[in-house]
Structures are given as C-alpha cells and as structure tokens.
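Ticket #4471: structure output looks truncated?

Reporter: J.K.
Steps to reproduce: submitted the chain below (245 residues) through the standard prediction queue, then opened the result file.
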Amino acid sequence: MTAYPVALVTGANKGLGKETVRQLAARGTTVVLASRDSERGKAAANELATAGTKPVPVQLDVTDAGSVRDVADWLYGKYGRLDVLVNNAGTVVDQLAERTTAAEMRQVYEVNVFGVVTVIQTMLPLLSKSAAPRIVNVSSTTASMSLTGSGTDFGGDNDLRMAYSSSKTALNMLTIQYARAFSTSDALSHIKINSATPGYTATGMTRHRGTRSVAEGARIIVDLATLVDDGPTGGFFNDQGAVPW
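Returned output as attached by the reporter:
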C-alpha cells in the first residue's frame, strides 16, 4: 500500500504517455506505466528512473480484456485502489475518407473507443475505492464537431483523419455518458472524468511534425488527472480552457 496517489497510464512507453508519467511522478504520484510491449515499457520506465522518477512498468493491451483484468488484479493486490486512470493508448490510420474501409475503422475504434470502455469498466471497482478518483480520456482537437464543421485547420493532414477523428468524437461522448452515469451513483459520484486534448503535438503519431512539445501537450492531461474536489467533470479541455464539442 502507498500513501501517495496511484495512477495508471496506458500507452505510456513513449510520447505523450511517457511524458504524462514523468509529470505525474514529479507531482508525487506513484505511476504505473502500462504498455502493450513489455520490453518497451521496461525501457521507458528505466529511462525515466534515471531522471529521478520511479514508474512501475506493466504489460497491458487495451484490446485484450484478460490483459486488462490481470493488471486490475495486480493493482488491487499491491495498492488496493486506483486514484488516477489516464486512457492514453491510441492508434491512427491515415487514409482519405473516400478510401477508408470498415476494417480500418474497426482497427482504430478497437483501441481508441472499445479499449477505453474495457479499461474503465475493469478499473471502476478500484477507482471507487479512492477518495478522489480521476479519469482522463486523451482526445484530440480534431474530435470537435463544431471546429471541424467550421473548416478549422488543425495542422497536419486534415483530409486523412476520418477514422481517428471520429473515434475521438466517440470517446468524447463516452466522457459525457460516464459523467452522467457517475453523478447518479452513490458508489461512483466522486469520480471525475474529462476529455483532454494536447493539441498538435510532436509525437510519433504526427510524425513529429506537431507544433507543441510533449511537455506542453501533457500539461492538460496532468492538470485534469490532479483536479481539486470542486473541479469540473464531463468536459473537454485543452490547456487554455474548454474546447467546443
């Protein structure tokens, strides 16, 4: 058991996930660094450990319910609770809308939407045991129907995002629906859940062409993960404030 907050970050062996681990650890959080590839996860944890943090690496594939359950059982045995869940694991298929296949859509949704549902549902019993549980769904500004419909230039390949952007729009709806459900549950009403958009960040997913650093992108994720008790829930935010749905 630990007196420090316990956080689980998925897809955390690189990019925004790894930076989120670093920033949370710097705030005194015990961070479990989850990655699909266990060796890459261990390497990331070792790299961060040399910088002064000590994340705990675990193997977790969000598309494998058994893998998620194993991590939940391990968390219960080691910590007895979970205080922060950051759903960062994600994937993208770059393809023109008119050429995007149903198979490509399913591939993206399996990770970005169904994987999040699997992780949240499995971790809810642990989150309910926390005094101040927080869930952060890592979304995208391109998920905004208002901004996309108005022709906003998000940077990068605007015309190759149908699968990715629509999956993040669906993720935002999950955030709203979970927030509404939690608010009516005596056991879960203390859980705050929000969507975070890091902006156009230089990661492998953007081929490192983003205009924001991972440190800048992770800021809003960490802020929402460490919200005070009177903070918002069921919202969509960047580091400047609320983002239109």
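Triage note (M.O.): checked the attachment and the full token line is present. The two ends are 39 Å apart (CA to CA).
Status: closed, working as intended.
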